[in-house]
Amino acid sequence: QKEVEQDPGPLSVPEGAIVSLNCTYSNSAFQYFMWYRQYSRKGPELLMYTYSSGNKEDGRFTAQVDKSSKYISLFIRDSQPSDSATYLCAMDTGANSKLTFGKGITLSVRP
Amino acid sequence: KAGVTQTPRYLIKTRGQQVTLSCSPISGHRSVSWYQQTPGQGLQFLFEYFSETQRNKGNFPGRFSGRQFSNSRSEMNVSTLELGDSALYLCASRPESGYNQPQHFGDGTRLSIL
After folding, report:
1. Chain A residues contacting B, CB < 8 Å?
2. CB B101: neighbour CB atoms within 10 A?
3. Which of the ends of chain B has fewer CB neighbours closer than 10 A, N or C?
4. Considering only CA atoms, which of A94, A50, A53, A65 is closest in space to residue B100?
5. pLDDT (tens digit per residue) in A7-43
6. CA-to-CA distance for A73 and B22, rounded, in angstroms?
7. Which residue among B56, B90, B100 sits closest to A98, beta carbon to beta carbon?
8. Interchain CB distance below 8 Å, A43 and B56
């Protein structure tokens, strides 16, 4: 079983839709949770960084962490064509620098 | 503030050669980590350097090595290149010695092995 599982894609939605991206994990030592966005031919860009269970909102993005269920989500409201990218969940234990990533999901927002 | 800078952006090598990749972290960041990204395995941690010392290491063979200089710039070296080393190599930096800070990535070096 992989430490981090991410919903497979690709995912295609119309502009304005609410998008839900999800990851589950098996390692209860994970303490920090991140979502990165990666455009083609670019490096991962940090979108959200959370520590505790609960919700964190930043503009159109909301990150949700449920440590009891070992489940994290990223919600994108009013999705735009510019949101079309690969989204990666990542997590670490806080004990070293090793980030463990999900495989990523490619999102396409249709105008 | 300039982001993480990686050079070169693209590189083509043949099997058996060696290669050196360079990474300049965000100004003031002292920790530099390296990752390999492939379609099959996704992003995998190679190693981390802090204060010119390798602090953490992933599960890669000894052909993969790195170093960090006093100005926090880092280099990664791969010797005896294999076809399977074709990948996007990403460098990430974080501000301090503690691990409760997010990592910020550069745009990577795309390495192709012929």
Report:
1. 32, 34, 36, 41-46, 49, 51, 88, 90, 92-104
2. 16
3. N
4. A94
5. 888 999 999 999 999 999 999 999 999 999 999 999 9
6. 34
7. B56
8. no
